[in-house]
Amino acid sequence: MDTPETARCRLYLITPPSIAHPALFADELRGALDGGDVAVLQLRLKEVPDDVVARTADVLRPICQQRGVAFIMNDRPDLALKLDCDGVHVGQQDAPYADARRLLGPDRIVGVTCKASRHLAMEAAEAGADYVAFGAFFTSSTKEATTPASPDILAWWSEIMTVPSVAIGGITADNCRPLVEAGADFLAVANGVWAHPDGPTQAVRRFNAVFDACFQ
Ligand SMILES: Cc1ncc(COP(=O)(O)OP(=O)(O)O)c(N)n1
Ligand SMILES: Cc1ncsc1CCOP(=O)(O)O
Ligand SMILES: [Mg+2]
């Protein structure tokens, strides 16, 4: 997740909210990864029993890790460790950053939701978070209750901080350009890839075409 100041923006995929058949979703994931550069896949299954999360992780993690894509668990530092994930993403209602770091050690990734708060982001970065996540930038069909964020926060952050930023919330290949131009290091996307009318491969290709256009 290293991002020098001028680094090209990268995709941070988030799984759909439910995965009924991990083997079928694995094919969609392979298709998405065939579409171009992807930095991260976050496994985000809410209110699903741990054994189901574990079985899903065991199918998806090797696909990611074989292709150099970091595999991140949402919400649960304990599962991230148990299932040998590359890291965890924690929100303000989840385990505190310090607890996640203590459990996962210095080498795994710990990212923190900061909504639209400069204060939360400064706190997380000073505590040692590997990235700070801002959003939602657009209406999300994946998560209803969100805090509206404006691209200004990405521009402010990239001016003064080196810790990478992740932008999230309703992002598509068609609306993402202002976020990339404002300095987002990563775009976290669920629906904009898995529900793209032309499929995940094309979606990833189109995001990367926008990144190419902004970083040439
Ligand atoms: C990259 C990234 N950013 C933000 C979130 C949201 O986390 P949180 O606020 O804990 O909400 P839930 O995802 O748990 O519903 C995220 N998951 N990933
Ligand atoms: C987890 C989360 N947090 C804020 S918006 C969001 C959902 C992201 O999914 P989508 O890209 O489909 O809006
Ligand atoms: Mg959470």
Automatic annotation (TrEMBL):
Q: How does the cofactor bind to this protein, according to its record?
A: Binds 1 Mg(2+) ion per subunit.
One GO-annotated biological process of the protein: thiamine biosynthetic process
Specify the pathway: Cofactor biosynthesis; thiamine diphosphate biosynthesis; thiamine phosphate from 4-amino-2-methyl-5-diphosphomethylpyrimidine and 4-methyl-5-(2-phosphoethyl)-thiazole: step 1/1
Which CDD domains does the record cross-reference, listed alphabetically?
Answer: TMP_TenI
The record's annotation in Pfam families points to: TMP-TENI
The reaction(s) this protein catalyses: 2-(2-carboxy-4-methylthiazol-5-yl)ethyl phosphate + 4-amino-2-methyl-5-(diphosphooxymethyl)pyrimidine + 2 H(+) = thiamine phosphate + CO2 + diphosphate; 2-[(2R,5Z)-2-carboxy-4-methylthiazol-5(2H)-ylidene]ethyl phosphate + 4-amino-2-methyl-5-(diphosphooxymethyl)pyrimidine + 2 H(+) = thiamine phosphate + CO2 + diphosphate; 4-methyl-5-(2-phosphooxyethyl)-thiazole + 4-amino-2-methyl-5-(diphosphooxymethyl)pyrimidine + H(+) = thiamine phosphate + diphosphate
Any one GO MF annotation of this record = thiamine-phosphate diphosphorylase activity
The EC number(s) this enzyme carries: 2.5.1.3
Which family does the record claim for this protein? Belongs to the thiamine-phosphate synthase family.
What name does this protein carry?
Answer: Thiamine-phosphate synthase
Organism, as annotated: Vineibacter terrae
Q: Which gene encodes it?
A: thiE
